[in-house]
Structures are given as structure tokens and as C-alpha cells.
């Protein structure tokens, strides 16, 4: 199986993005706002998922909008997409990565990728100011953080399988 990630961000109104996120119950109200980037996961010509991020300062980003088509789940694609995005962000100079989730399985997956749970009261101002943190995600969402630079634990390889 050959999985590719779009090399360039796609527009927030790209066909399939809003529908895929809405199907997963993920926020879509702010997709077109500045600072957001979304990437398509492809198997050949078939769109199989999406991942996105939002800049929250000069060197930080919020991972968001991860959706994998139901037919492609349980193959390690979510982890592989996160690893790809972390490496892409590192090449852009992003040294801090954050995520918000209400799903215990996603918390466990992110912890396996080097993220740690962060108390909501300890989030940096840039993250606290995002619409994701301040209202689109419920207050019960878990905040996770990870250093994403040369001093961070290496991002483990995650090959879809």
C-alpha cells in the first residue's frame, strides 16, 4: 500500500474536507480563517483522509482536523499522518506542537508519539486564544503538548500497514 500526503496545503474549501471532518464530529466553523493548513492523504488517486494544523505563534502549532476514511482505519494511518505533519512542521521551524481531543484512544496514540497531557491552566496564551481551545472544542477536551525540535524525543517512524 502506497500512501502519499499532499506536499502543499490544500484550501479549506477543498472538496471532501468539510464533509470528512463533519462526519467525524470535528469542528468546521473556522476552517477558512487565517493560519490554518490542511493536507490530504491519498492512496493512488483515492482520498483516504485529512490532517491539519493551526499556527499559534512564531514556533508553535495546534494539530487538528485528523480524519481517516472508515475503510482505511486500523492500518496505522492516523499515527503516520501525525508523524508526517510533525516532521513537516519541524522543517518549517515549529518547535512546539499541541493537540486537543476528547477521545481516550487519541490521547493514548499521541502519548505514544511523545505528547504529554498538559493542564488547561498551563496552556500558552497563543493556544488559549484559538477558537479550537476557547469554544469549538468542549472544555472537557484533553490538551497535549510535545516539543518538536532537535532536543525532543525523536518522532518514531509510523509506517501504515
Explain what you see:
- With 161 residues, the chain is of the alpha+beta class.
- It is built from five helices and seven strands.
- Strands 1-2-3-4-5-7-6 form a seven-stranded mixed β-sheet, sandwiched between helices.
- β3 (46-55) and β4 (60-68) form a beta hairpin.
- The model has no long low-confidence stretch (mean pLDDT 85).
Shape field = globular
Which strand order does the major sheet show? 1-2-3-4-5-7-6
Find the CATH superfamily.
Answer: Gcn5-related N-acetyltransferase (GNAT)
Count of DSSP H/I helices? 5
Reading off the top of the CATH hierarchy, the class is best stated as Alpha Beta
Low-confidence stretches: none
Q: Nearest-angstrom radius of gyration?
A: 15 Å
Mean pLDDT across residues: 85
Explain briefly what this protein structure is.
With 161 residues, the chain is α+β, with helices and mostly antiparallel strands. 25% of the residues lie in helices and 28% in strands.
Amino acid at each position: 500500500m502506497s500512501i502519499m500526503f499532499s506536499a502543499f496545503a490544500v484550501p479549506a474549501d477543498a472538496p471532501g474536507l468539510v464533509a470528512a471532518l463533519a462526519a467525524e464530529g470535528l469542528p468546521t466553523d473556522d476552517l477558512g480563517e487565517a493560519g490554518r493548513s490542511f493536507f490530504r492523504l491519498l492512496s493512488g488517486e483515492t482520498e483516504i483522509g485529512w490532517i491539519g494544523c493551526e499556527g499559534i505563534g512564531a514556533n508553535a502549532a495546534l494539530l487538528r482536523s485528523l480524519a481517516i476514511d472508515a475503510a482505511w482505519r486500523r492500518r496505522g494511518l492516523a499515527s503516520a499522518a501525525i508523524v508526517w505533519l510533525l516532521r513537516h512542521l519541524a522543517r518549517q521551524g515549529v518547535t512546539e506542537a499541541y493537540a486537543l481531543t476528547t477521545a481516550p484512544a487519541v490521547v493514548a496514540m499521541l502519548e505514544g508519539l511523545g505528547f504529554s497531557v498538559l493542564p488547561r491552566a498551563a496552556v500558552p496564551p497563543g493556544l488559549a486564544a484559538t477558537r479550537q481551545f476557547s469554544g469549538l472544542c468542549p472544555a472537557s477536551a484533553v490538551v497535549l503538548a510535545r516539543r518538536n525540535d532537535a532536543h525532543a524525543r525523536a518522532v518514531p517512524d509510523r509506517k501504515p500497514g
